[in-house]
Amino acid sequence: MADVCESHPTRRAILGTAGALFAWGALPRTATAAPGSRDARLVVVILRGALDGLSAAPPLGDPSYASLRPGIALTGDGSGAAPPLDGFFALHPALPTFARLYAAR
After folding, report:
1. Residue 82: which of 68, 64, 102 has the closest Cα?
2. What is the pTM of this model?
3. Which PROSITE patterns match (predicted)?
4. Is residue 84 within 8 Å of 76, Cβ to Cβ?
């Protein structure tokens, strides 16, 4: 029964595995979205429930915003005010680091 559990890798299997690991290690350097570009944008993907674009960066300048999101619409004044990004959008108060990074450009 000990003979059944033993496995001896062949030279071909070792070379194939080594080649696959080498290719996998080089993959992040060769797979770029736009080679040669130096665009300094930050893209954040948040995979948590209940955080959509209108919650993260609410359009406070839109007159219909508060009426379309009753009970959850953010405001630009008072306690828990959303810090403004520009004249139209603000940022959720729970994202102070993003507000600081945006202000620093």
Report:
1. 102
2. 0.50
3. TAT
4. yes
